UniProtKB/TrEMBL annotation:
SMART domains: AAA (SM00382). This is ATP-binding protein. It holds the Pfam family DUF87. Keywords: ATP-binding, Nucleotide-binding. It comes from the Bacteria. InterPro entries: AAA+_ATPase, ATPase_Atu1862_pred, HerA-like, HerA_central, P-loop_NTPase. Residues 24-389 form the AAA+ ATPase domain. The keyword Coiled coil does not apply. One of its GO terms (molecular function) is ATP binding.
Length: 486
């Protein structure tokens, strides 16, 4: 089924339409100076496509929150959410196919980068069963994918750029269709802009931006001057979802109101104020006046002995009594049981660790588990054991800590695979099949499972061979454990 989105009028009065299905496969880049009508164009596109496809808007200025009143979008105030909460919100919005406006207004640039990256990562990491078509609109994309250094922490810049790169470069197979708008192509990271196949280029004045816009549209350099002549709401369109040759498009009217519309001229007061100076320069009310603070004279300097006494470190508090072995064992059993409960949910074995950790913390608080909660590093270790489905009788054996110590030398995502193999070898059970290993790896791909086993063998922790009947046998190096024959 072909869905044609009416953007307005093209040259000659013909309707300017966009093929929605083609857009979902090829992505869109919108460029133009401030005030050229980019936000108006995005609003028109979202209004006309809202009945057909789920939408997410990354909104740095809160301009698109009015979509909620007309089309039922959920508005998320990013300033009131944690980054982990936004990861979970992104995952849940894909599962339930809810259109969302992520309002980043009120956050500083670094906070906008971090929160947008967290939400985009939640969308990107959703399980395969929920890879339905999703239109992801990013306004002012140069804020989230800058081409050079910016005055924010390097960690925040990398996280935001990585999320935008995933959206534009790897998002298609996951159903994510990126629509990015920017004021200047020169400020937008090239690897993000290069993945778009559809272009709508508005008014721009700088030579470098005009030249890049002309190159993207396949126009000659001498034609680049025409971008200065475009009126507000006019764009040059090109791409498989728009037109096979550059065509001028005039964007039509929208149904919802933008909070970011430019201010209108307002007449000045008809009669000037009689005493403007007295009104503007009036003294503040008594409650707001700054009262002078009388400073006490500085105390005399202490003598040398007093200075030495003051510099002497305070006695450290007595150390807290270490928890008993019984308490440590009880805590370990409780945490392991909680991880098993998290993994018992459908599809939990294939979700990212960061999403499962939020569920784990909520369950721990509800159950009022004694002692400190596990941090993310400890949770990942428990998750590896849980995904490996190690039997309790095997984990209780005195040789098992050796297996955990060997697993700690591997990357986190491979630890569960090694523990799965080590548990079978320690118990003398048959070697797990490819599907069991894939589940311990957190994937459905048996090919990735085989590569994981090969990586562990290359690391020198196991030796894999086949018996006379072609069945896989795994031996743990240095421990003398080997899987049996079924």
């Amino acid at each position: 089924m072909t869905v044609a989105i009416d953007l307005g009028a093209a040259e000659g009065g013909a309707p300017a339409v966009m093929d929605l299905e083609e857009l979902l496969a090829t992505r869109l880049l919108v460029q133009g100076n401030s005030g050229c009508g980019k936000s108006h164009l995005l609003r028109r596109l979202m209004e006309r496509s809202a009945p057909w496809v789920q939408q997410v808007v990354i909104d740095p200025e809160g301009d698109f929150t009015s979509l909620a009143d007309r089309f039922g979008h959920l508005v998320i105030d990013a300033a009131a959410q944690t980054e982990q909460g936004l990861v979970l919100a992104g995952d849940r919005s894909r599962r339930h196919r809810v259109s969302v406006v992520l309002n980043l207004e009120g956050l500083d640039p670094e906070g906008q980068m971090r929160h947008a990256a967290a939400f985009l990562n939640g969308l990107f990491d959703a399980p395969r069963d929920y890879w339905t078509p999703l239109l992801v609109v990013v306004d002012e994309a140069q804020l989230f994918a800058p081409s050079g250094a910016v005055e924010v922490a390097e960690e925040a810049r990398r996280a935001s750029l990585g999320a935008m790169t995933n959206l534009m470069c790897r998002g298609r197979k996951r159903g994510l269709a990126g629509v990015i708008a920017t004021q200047r192509l020169a400020k937008l990271a090239k690897n993000v802009a290069a993945e778009a196949s559809n272009f709508l280029m508005g008014r721009t004045f700088l030579d470098i931006d005009m030249a890049r816009a002309a190159d993207l549209l396949g126009m000659e350099r001498r034609q680049a001057e025409m971008f200065r002549d475009l009126a507000r709401g006019q764009f040059m369109a090109l791409g498989p979802a728009l037109s096979r040759r550059p065509v001028r498009v005039v964007v039509g009217q929208v149904e919802t109101e933008s909070r970011g519309a430019g201010p209108k001229l307002t007449p000045l007061p008809a009669a000037p104020l009689e005493d403007a100076a007295a009104l503007i320069l009036a003294a503040p009310p008594p409650s707001e006046m700054l009262r002078p603070v009388r400073r006490a004279p500085p105390p005399p300097p202490p003598d040398v002995l007093a200075q030495l006494a003051a510099a002497r470190p305070a006695a450290p508090p007595p150390p807290a009594a270490p928890p008993s072995p019984e308490a440590l064992a009880e805590r370990a059993r409780a945490l392991a049981g909680m991880v098993r409960a998290v993994l018992a949910e459908e599809e939990a074995a294939f979700r990212p660790a960061s999403v499962l950790y939020q569920d784990f913390l909520v369950r721990c608080r509800i159950a009022a588990l004694p002692g400190p909660l596990a941090d993310l590093a400890e949770f990942r270790r428990l998750l590896a054991v849980g995904r490996a489905e190690v039997p309790e009788e095997v984990a209780a054996r005195e040789e098992w800590p050796q297996a955990e110590a060997m697993a700690a030398t591997l990357p986190e995502e491979l630890q569960g695979v090694f523990l799965k193999l080590a548990a079978a070898a320690l118990a003398g059970a048959p070697c797990p099949g490819d599907e069991e290993i894939a589940r311990a790896y957190g994937t459905r791909s048996v090919g990735r499972a085989r590569r994981a086993v090969g990586f562990i063998e290359e690391a020198g922790l196991v030796v894999v061979r086949e018996d006379g009947q072609g069945r896989r046998v795994v031996a743990v190096v240095g421990a003398g454990w080997e899987t049996g024959i079924s």
